[in-house]
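Anyone have tokens for HTH luxR-type domain-containing protein? Sequence:
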Amino acid sequence: MYYFSVMRRRSSMFSSLAEKKSWFTPDDLVPERRARFGSALSEGVSFTFVDSPSQPRMSDVPENSLLSCIHSVTARSAASVVLPFTLMAVSAEGRVLELIHSNETLRREAEQAGLRRGLMLDLLHAGMNAVSLAMETGGPTVVRGVEHSHPVFRQWNCICAPLVFEDRRYGFLDLSFSVAREVEFAVPFVIKLAEDISAQVQACDPCMRRSRIQELFQEFGLTPREREVAELWMNKKGALHISSQLGISEGTVRNTVKRIYEKMKVSDRAEMIGRLL
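Reply: yep, here.
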């Protein structure tokens, strides 16, 4: 699983973790790393808003695709959460893209506190919070009440999980709820929610879907030429079209398709598509 591989690679950055704990807290930072967050607090932090990124985004995922998938997955999962919550979708750079509140009271409280789209939650702009800690660690995080740098967040316990595709983080999901509630039960839920959103983004976004299909072609052992033919074939292009586009004969196309079927252990185009989508 990506989260745990990240933890192993970055183990030198943190103090000893509980053997079975699958998330980071501020206490897991080694002193020199913790000092970075402490300096942000001592200097004082105030909310900063960015309506649109000033630099190219770190992610290749269009924000509208990401938000559509978040709303879709959240609508299916929210019924299983009985406590009042606020869910924040955050870009790879730490900018809040969307806030989803479980009730109207939370929405009004968030507005009064100045929480809205464009809020920057990275270390530089917001100090210690679940998102900035996840940006630092690369894995799921938990930040409780008074551990937050900004006073507004000290009434909340917050859980954040990265949204990941092919070992790249393209955003974060943050679930916040009353500081009076325990966090342990909610951590697996947030991690699973982030995984479900990532899976749906991969399925819906054309660029990510193509990347995943190419990855599967490699797993099936297709050669570069076979991958070219397979991609066109699964998109329902005929042998004549493929031969013209790739500059090979129709016979070569048909022989290549036969080898592709053998490697993928399928017997026709429909079965091939079913194995890839």
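Residues 121 and 266 are 48 Å apart (CA to CA).
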